[in-house]
Structures are given as C-alpha cells and as structure tokens.
Amino acid sequence: MQAREYVLITGASEGLGREFAKLFAADRFPIVLVARNHSRLAEIARELSSLHGVDVRIIAKDLSRPGAAQEIKEELDGQAIAVGTLVNNAGCGIHGPFDRSDWKATEAMLSLNIMALTHLTRLLLPGMIAKASGKVLNVASTAAFQPGPFMACYFASKAYVLSFTEALSGELSGTGVTATVFCPGPVKTQFQKRSGTEHIRENAFAMEAGPAARMAYRGMMKGKRIVIPGFFNKLLAFLVRITPRGLVLKVTRFLEKGKTPS
Questions:
Q1: pLDDT (0 to 100) of residue 240
Q2: CATH fold group of domain 6-257
Q3: Rounded Cα gap, residues 220 and 24, in angstroms
Q4: Element (H, E) at 165
Q5: Is 150 strand, coil or helix?
Q6: Torsion angle (degrees, nearest 10) of CA 101, 156, 94, 120
Q7: What is the DSSP track for 85-124?
Q8: DSSP codes joined into one string, 193-233
C-alpha cells in the first residue's frame, strides 16, 4: 500500500486548526502542524501520535511575517515531505473603526489572511497537480459575503479568500486536485478574545469548533467548492446576494458594532 502524503495545517495550535488535525490523524494521515507556539504544537503532536500512531511533524512559524511561506517550503523540502493536502486555516481579525486601527496590526492581519495563504498555495499546488492528486482547503468566513463595518479589513480579506478559492477551483477542473473554501459563521475559539469581538451581537450564533471542522472536512473530501455550515449561515449567504446592499450594510453594522462607539 502506497504511503499517504502529508497534510499541512496552518493555525494548528488551537481552535479549528486543532480540530482539523484530530480529524486527519483519526483517518491515519501523516500531518505537518504549523503555528507560532512551538511548545503547544509539540504537545498536540505527541497527543495525536499517541492516539492514532501517525507521523506528526511541527514547524513553528509566524506566517504574518514576510517570507514565512517560503521558509516552510524549504523545511518541507529539507525533510523530503510531500504535501498532498493543504489546509490554510491560520487567520486573525481586528475589531474597531478603521480610522483608529493600529496599522502594524492591520498589515500583519492582511499578510496572514491573504499573502501567506496565497503564497503557500502557490508553493505547494504544483506538486499536487504534477501527481494529479491533492486537496486545498482555505478557511474564509460568512464575512466573505458582505462588507463589515468595524471589521472592514477582516471582512475584505475573507472576501478575497472566497473569490480566490472559487477561481482556483475552476482552474483545477480536470487536474485531479480540488480547492474548497470553508465559510463558517462565528466559531467558539480564541478568535473572539484576540480580535476584540467578545461582545458583538453576532456571537449569539456561534458554533462549536468540532462540528464546524467536521463539516469542512467532509466537504473537502467530497471535493466541494464551497462549504457553509449550518442552516442560518447558508441562509445568510443567500440573502445577502438578493438584499439591497445598503440594507446589508446596516444589518452588518448592527451585528458587528457591539460596544464599539460610532
């Protein structure tokens, strides 16, 4: 039996990333975990290896830093690791009025959410196409379907991920490689605390990370182009396309505002 190629998961130290790692390990895929926290990655690697007997490698890397994706590719090549599935899960958000935002934090967010995801895909996709086999899963959000006052750059970055992945899916038709974009609504992770969105109204609809990851995993394995978990999120994605844009903007502003002053 031919050995399975590795699954590379970014943002793998917690939340959706950790749940994805559990799912792949349970199905006996060897894994490469990528995140900033080396000790946390090492702990998860030991846990998954012990439970499932799979090879789990770790790469501690800050993907918001320029050149990080290339460094990851060089480490993979140095260890002769062939990646057959790429899960671009790493991402972050910033809440608050754009005119008062910290530019360095905003720049790092855009670098992580857009540039790192795109560069890693560009680096690893040719190897998949050459073997006529592979999968790319990019984590976006229901934020991708509309503009988001008080999280303007975050919403825009997820719109990019949605558009990029859909276009990529079209390009990959007939190659044996698929591209899937996952668009969940709020998910109960550390994202809310880190992005300052703990008190926004949208969190009333938050899902648990485990069930959300399972839906994404199943959809990716079936080669679906878009996976939107939950009836409410599917309805939202549909309604924003037929609702007047001005009304969408007002509703989103209401949901995102929370305690932020206007």
A1: 77
A2: Rossmann fold (3.40.50)
A3: 12
A4: helix 152-171
A5: coil
A6: -120
A7: EEEE-------S-GGGS-HHHHHHHHIIIIIIHHHHHHHH
A8: HHHT-TT-GGGGGPEEHHHHHHHHHHHHHTT-SEE--SHHH
**Range 117-150 burial, b when 16+ CB lie within 10 A, else e:** bbbbbebbbebbeeeeebbbbbbbbbbbbbbbbb
- When pLDDT is cut at 50, 70 and 90, the band that residue 47 belongs to is very high
Spatial CB neighbours of 14, under 8 Å, sequence gap ≥ 6: 35, 40, 189, 190
For tokens 């609702």, the residue is 243
Mind telling me the catalytic residues?
A: 154
Domain-by-domain residue ranges, the chain? 6-257
> Judging by DSSP bridges, how do beta strands 56-60 and 177-182 pair with one another?
unpaired
Residue position matching structure tokens 């668009």? 183
Nearest to 28 by CA among 55, 47, 58: 55
Residue 80 DSSP SS3: coil
Helix (H) or strand (E) holding 69: helix 68-78
DSSP for 224-251?
-SEE--SHHHHHHHHHHHHS-HHHHHHH
CA–chain centroid gap for 141, Å, is 8
Residue 105: name the closest of 14, 16, 194 by CA: 194
| Model confidence at 196: pLDDT above 60 | no
At 196, list the tokens.
């300052």
Measure the CA–CA gap between 203 and 157, rounded to whole angstroms: 20
